[in-house]
Request: fold
Amino acid sequence: MSLVLQGEAALRTAIGGFYQRPPLLPVPWLAYPLPMHPDPGSPPRPRPGAGRVLPAPARALLFGASGQVGSAVLERLLEAGWEVDAPSREQRAPRRGLNWLRGGFDALPELAGRYDAVLSCGPLDLFARWHAGCGVEAGRVVAFGSTSATAKRGSADAAERELAARLVRAEAIVLRPTLVYGAGRDRSLSRIAAMARGRGVFVLPRGATGLRQPVHVDDLAATALAALTAPGAGGRGYDLPGGEALPYREMVARVLGSLRPPARLVEVPRPVFSALAAVLRAGGRLQGFGPAAQARLRQDLVFDAGPAVAALGHAPRPFRPAPGTFA
Reply:
């Protein structure tokens, strides 16, 4: 295989959202002894003592229930005995305890006047605007955002930060995960796996050692459910990193090692990688990914798990992808 084809695979994958600007905060989370979840098949982890007392059965309104995070949250809600109303633009098969509501934010059907919990696992901007004028009462509101909105300084990211701030002022809990994996539906690590699986190799520039914290989707779901009853947790945002901070190239190497057969990581000198990117851009085969994006491969993107550990019992597993994780 030519170096150009190998490089194009890596560079096109990079556009999918791997590279964020460094966080504005220091990295004190590394000092926290995270209660890691050692194995995807392990039993549920203990959570902080119950705060809010919920009726039986409790009723939730769940947005984004068909997404990679929402699907995991939905399963945990149903397993815990919740009755769930879930809006969807598509017709979906009914399930015990689950009531699919046909429609989206722009055309929602009639909702209940009150829910024990409202959760959003979809676009934060749409949910925040709906929540501001919905008239639906909720015992607790939990919404997923992104750590990228905290780290980046662009206008779109500033808008998301402001929307998250409005939710926090309304006593909602905003959860900000880092690099999500585990459902095989993300546009980052699963894309790396897909490209490497087809070619047997994946190309990175040497020195891609910036720290990353991939977090498993089921750990996010567990923390979201804990947030529904955690005492005194409302009215703030929580970063939800994974249970391990590791260099970018090591993270990619573990993804490649989980494939069957394993794929090979090829590291080339940075000038070669940069020149290759320039050639691909000039030929219209690559958009963006200039020197700034390449430099971020060497920058640490780590977030503080301490508040989520203390308030919500966030207990992420280390990044040890098994065969089939990225199937």
Summary: The chain has eleven helices and 15 strands. Residues 1-33, 38-50 have pLDDT under 50 and may be disordered.
